[in-house]
Amino acid sequence: xxxxxxxxxxxxxxxxxxxxxxxxxxxxxxxxxxxxxxxxxxxxxxxxxxxxxxxxxxxxxxxxxxxxxxxxxxxxxxxxxxxxxxxxxxxxxxxxxxxxxxxxxxxxxxxxxxxxxxxxxxxxxxxxxxxxxxxxxxxxxxxxxxxxxxxxxxxxxxxx
Length: 160
Fold this sequence. Notes:
- By secondary structure, this protein is mainly α.
- The protein has one domain (32-157): Four Helix Bundle (Hemerythrin (Met), subunit A).
- Helices cover 57% and strands 2% of the residues.
- The protein has four helices and two strands, in the order H-E-E-H-H-H.
- The chain has helices at residues 32-64, 78-111, 127-132, 140-157; strands at 69-70, 73-74.
- It has a two-stranded antiparallel ribbon.
- Helix 1 (32-64) runs antiparallel to helix 2.
- The radius of gyration is 28 Å and the shape is flat.
């Protein structure tokens, strides 16, 4: 006569044992606490950019008002003053572009899409990339691929 032993196996939770729960891995993007860290970094960049924009505006205003001594000192020649003004205008444009990129990144945080590659692959931009360039909107691999495709189109069309 054969005897079968039936053993009821219960889960650790059923036996009253606390099991640490690992958060589910997200398909793409970052968790709210991570987004908060990125938001703080972006806000710091925004403040720095605002200060730089205001400094350049003051400098340009000083030079436009005809003050001998501008924000960065006395100009030796009128030509160098004009060159300095053009350089400041270009810098102001670049800073303005960066300011808007920061604003776009902050909006993405509020929508929960910050850190997701804009190329359409839907993958998460690596944390290290976002920490070094918080307005990055593409993974490096995707950006390189897009750049190469643009170069190929340029070569095929014969544009010079």
